[in-house]
Structure formats: C-alpha cells, structure tokens
Design a protein that fits this description.
The complex is a heterodimer of chains A (236) and B (293). By secondary structure, chain A is α/β, with parallel strands linked by helices. The termini of chain A are far apart. With 293 residues, chain B is mainly α. Chain B is globular. Helices cover 72% and strands 3% of the residues of chain B. In chain B, a hairpin with a 2-residue loop joins strand 1 and strand 2. In chain B, helix 2 runs antiparallel to helix 3, helix 2 packs parallel to helix 4 and helix 10 crosses helix 11. Classes of the chains: A alpha/beta (236), B mainly alpha (293). Chains A and B meet through helix 2, helix 3 and helix 6 of A and helix 6 and helix 7 of B.
Chain lengths: 236, 293
C-alpha cells in the first residue's frame, strides 16, 4: 500500500477550485516529482496535503484519513512541508531554526537528529549562530530542509527547492536529497518547475496541467518523453 | 553631584516602571501586530484588584501575586475573546475596539471603586540606604530589583526554553510555526497573558506613588509609549533601554530645566515620541529585517 494516497481530491482558494479530482499515490521510500507550468496547481497540491488550505476528497496517509485534520495535526502525523520561498524563521538563528523544527520531539531526539542532518549539510554547521535571514538562498533552502527533517517526518513535501538557486547549487541539493532518501529511507514528494535535475534523482513523476494530472510515469520515461522534454525540460 | 546621581537613580526606578509597561505593549505588538491601547487601563484594574484583595484581608505581597496571575488570565481572555476574532478585521476596526475597551475599563473602575483616590501601600519599606555620600530609598532600589528579576526571568523563558523559542517563532513567522507543529494561537494567547502580567506589575509598582484612581495610568502609558517608540516597538531590549532612558531624561529635565519642572514633564514623552518618529522611525533597536532571497 502506498504511504500517501489522494482520491478525487479537490482544493483551491475561496470559491475558486484549482485542483480537480486528483488521484495520486506516493510509495514509501520513493521520490516522486510533480512537474507543471506556473499556475498548474503544484503548490496548491502540497498545501492541500499539508492541510494549510481547504480541500475535499480523500487523503490517506499511512492508512489514516488526514483530510479532516488541521495542519498542526498533519505535522504531528509525520508530514513535513518545506514551503515555496523556504519559510525559515528569518529572525531566529540557524541553530534556533533547527531546534524549533524539532518542537514536537524530545530533547534527546533533537540532539541526535541535529548532528545527523548537519552531517548532510556541513555548511549550516558553520552558520549556526547566524540569523537565518542573512543566509544565502542555497543555505536557506538547506536550513528549511533540515528544519523539516528535524520533525522526523515519514513524508517530506518540497515546494520548488530549486527556486532562485544557481543550477550548480540545485544539483548539489538534489544529490543531498537522494543521499538522505538512501540513508534514512525518506519518502519525498517534490514539486518542480525546472525538471531535469529533479528527474535525475526521482523514481517517478506526474505532470500537472490546469489542476489535473495529465501524465504519470517513471522518472526515466518522463525524462525521455518528447513532450515532457519539449515543455518542461527546455529541449526542442 | 549628589542631586544629579539621585535624580539618575530615581529616573531609573521610574524608568523600570515605564519599561515594564512598554514591554507589555511590545509583547502584544510583536505577537499580533496590534498596539493594545487598553494596556494601561488593564494595569490600573490590576492595581485596584490588589487594593480590593487587601480590603478582603489578604496581605499585600500575596495580593500582588494573585493580581498578576489574574491579569495573565485576563490578558489571555482578551486575546481569545476580542483580538483573535478580529485578526482579519482592518486595523482601524481593531484600534477602535481597543480604544473602546480603554474607555470601558476606565469607566468600569470608576463605577466599581468610585473616582475618589485610594492609597495602595508600597511593596517596600520606607527605609533609606546610605552608601557613602549617596543615599537611595528602599522603594527605588526595590523597584529596580523587581523589574531586573522579571527581565531575567523573561530572558530565560525566551532564550532557554522550548516554549519561549516557539513563542518567538510564532511571532516572527506564524506560517512556518504551524508547519513545525506549533499552535500559533496558543503562543499568542500566552504572549497577551504575559503582556497583561507585565502591565499589572507596572500598575502595582506605580500605584503607591500616584494613588489609586481610574486615571492613574495616564501618565505612565504616555511614557511607556515613548519608551516603546524610542526602543523600536518590536524590540524587547529596546523597550527596556527606552524605558530607562525616558525615566532618567524625564527626571533630569524636570529637575534642571526650571520652566519645565514637574508639571510639564509629560512634554518630554511627547517630544521623544515625535523626535524618534521623525529622525529614526525604527527606534534605537527596531528591526530592519535582513532578508536575502
């Protein structure tokens, strides 16, 4: 059974529906990528799963219905959301951001996890006492991911981690994500607009268009699909 | 020289009172972006509560502690019943409601306890300590000490505890606080509770100096606004430094500039507010947020 299953899920803002009857399965220990143009509903999809916006339909996480739960309860259930624009606590230090990420964990778990994830992001270790708002874009993204991992989630939702980053930084970031998946068996659902780097580390993917899933396949097939290459990977 | 030094120390004691009320303003403002215009009147009610408890036979110190605890709950209730439901209302609506609350609380105190002034005993003995040529009253030393201890406790709460960190996170970036599992409304509720408790402290400290009456906080709240503005309104350190500065400046000006004297001292507060807003609107410690994308 898949770790996360969406059935006929609709979501939107106020009266406007952005997502129409989405069916989606995310398998445990896999990286699934959601491709789509601006406005296709990628961010809305992640927000609906993490409960930060209203949604209808069925969302089952690890055998438990979560579509009626508040955002805070969904966090407690084990879904960590790294929002677009990173959402770090700009006024707090890097170390405080990391510790606050473990708000629902015990002190012992916090100490242990902090060391573990900092070993994946050594740059952050040098920046611990610094204000998070003063970090570079890449460092902020690392911090946002570390903060999310401190929750000990079983599913990590990542909203355009590459946004505003240089390709070389993005490449390093995706490699680290792949390493984290290998070592921790973390399941990830990654939304991306620039897709080639994401597809390199993903297992499978879906293409979202005007709030509907129009294509689902393995990452390898998607990367080789002519239409996907033309529209999302920028090949002619 | 002795006069100068004693004016400074008296100024620090006044300033400590302004600082605790300024902190109350800063706490509500940092957590919810709302300036609680009724903060001073809530503090006045807290001071009246001490007097009432004493009338019922409770000794002063327990009465003060009970009043501070009740004020914490009242502040939390104010948030839950008025501020939170208005969180999506326009700023003008919120300000109108809080100014309405200011007037309502003021009248309520007059209705219950009448407008005749009442004495509230000081928490400190009427002694003086002599340190060589310098003398300091027990009250002055006591006020400074009490506020210093409270500041230390607040510092420990915010810098060393998990809930303190969560409160700072909820105040700084509420959207992200939700995503790490922090209950933002609960943190704001506690923030408004702490604000009311700090206000109560300022009311209890100032009441013995000005006598209990429904308008007793009027002078204090103006200085607290000056202190918070000078400090930068969203800075805890700023509120404290601002409060102490305002207290000292007010005392020195009242003593050394004859035409101002004790009667026109309040002008000092207004000049400080206008001056800060004109010259450095962020105040001494206000955050210019550093954000890189």
């Amino acid at each position: 059974m898949s770790l996360l299953a969406l059935r006929r899920m609709c979501a939107g803002y106020d009266a406007r529906n952005v997502l129409h009857e989405i069916d989606l399965d995310v398998e445990a220990r896999q990286i699934q990528v959601v491709l789509g143009a601006n406005g296709a509903g990628k961010t809305t999809l992640l927000r609906a799963i993490s409960g930060t916006i209203a949604r209808q339909g069925e969302i089952v996480f690890d055998g438990q219905r979560i579509d009626q739960l508040s955002a805070r309860k969904i966090v407690a259930a084990g879904i960590a959301h790294v929002p677009q624009g990173r959402g770090t606590f700009a006024d707090l230090t890097v170390d405080e951001n990391i510790r606050l990420g473990a708000y629902l964990r015990t002190a012992a778990e916090t100490r242990q996890d902090r060391e573990r994830w900092l070993s994946f992001f050594p740059r952050l270790r040098e920046r611990l006492p610094q204000q998070a708002g003063s970090l570079s874009g890449g460092e902020q993204q690392m911090l946002a991911i570390t903060r999310a991992l401190m929750l000990r989630p079983r599913l990590l939702l990542l909203d355009e981690p590459s946004l505003g980053l240089a390709p070389i930084i993005t490449q390093g970031l995706f490699r680290t994500l792949a390493a984290i998946r290998e070592e921790a068996g973390m399941t990830m659902l990654i939304v991306e607009q620039s897709a080639n780097l994401a597809l390199e580390v993903a297992d499978s993917g879906v293409v979202l268009e005007s709030g509907q899933i129009v294509l689902r396949d393995s990452a390898r097939n998607l990367a080789g699909n002519d239409e996907v290459r033309r529209i999302y990977l920028g090949y002619e | 020289m002795t006069l100068f030094a004693s004016q400074i120390v008296d100024g620090l004691a006044d300033g400590a009172i302004y600082a605790s009320l300024a902190l109350a303003l800063v706490f509500s403002y940092r957590s919810t972006g709302i300036v609680n215009f009724a903060q001073g009147e809530m503090a006045m009610l807290s001071a009246y509560l001490v007097w009432q408890l004493m009338q019922w036979g409770m000794p002063l110190v327990p009465a003060a502690l009970v009043s501070i605890a009740v004020s914490f709950v009242a502040g939390a209730l104010l948030y839950a019943s008025i501020v939170k439901p208005l969180s999506h209302a326009s700023l003008l609506t919120v300000v109108s409601v809080l100014i309405g609350l200011y007037l309502a609380l003021n009248s309520l105190a007059g209705f219950i306890w009448t407008y005749t002034i009442k004495p509230l005993p000081s928490l400190f003995p009427k002694a003086h300590f002599r340190l060589g040529w310098f003398s300091i009253s027990a009250e002055t030393a006591g006020i400074i000490a009490v506020v210093a201890v409270v500041l230390l406790l607040l510092y420990l709460l915010f810098e060393t505890t998990k809930i303190g960190l969560a409160m700072r996170g909820a105040a700084s970036t509420p959207d992200s606080a939700v995503l790490v599992g922090v209950s933002v409304p609960l943190m704001l509720l506690i923030g408004w509770g702490i604000a009311a408790a700090l206000g109560a402290l300022s009311g209890i400290l100032v009441a013995p100096r000005v006598f209990l009456n429904p308008t007793m906080m009027f002078g204090v709240i103006i200085y607290a606004f000056a202190a918070a503005t000078l400090g930068g309104f969203d800075s805890i350190v700023g509120a404290v430094v601002g409060g102490l500065l305002v207290g000292v400046v007010e005392n020195l000006v009242g003593t050394y500039i004859p035409w101002i004297g004790p009667d026109l001292k309040i002008i000092v507060a207004l000049v400080l507010i206008f001056g800060t807003l004109l010259i450095k609107p962020d105040g001494l410690f206000g955050r210019r947020k550093v954000v890189r994308l």
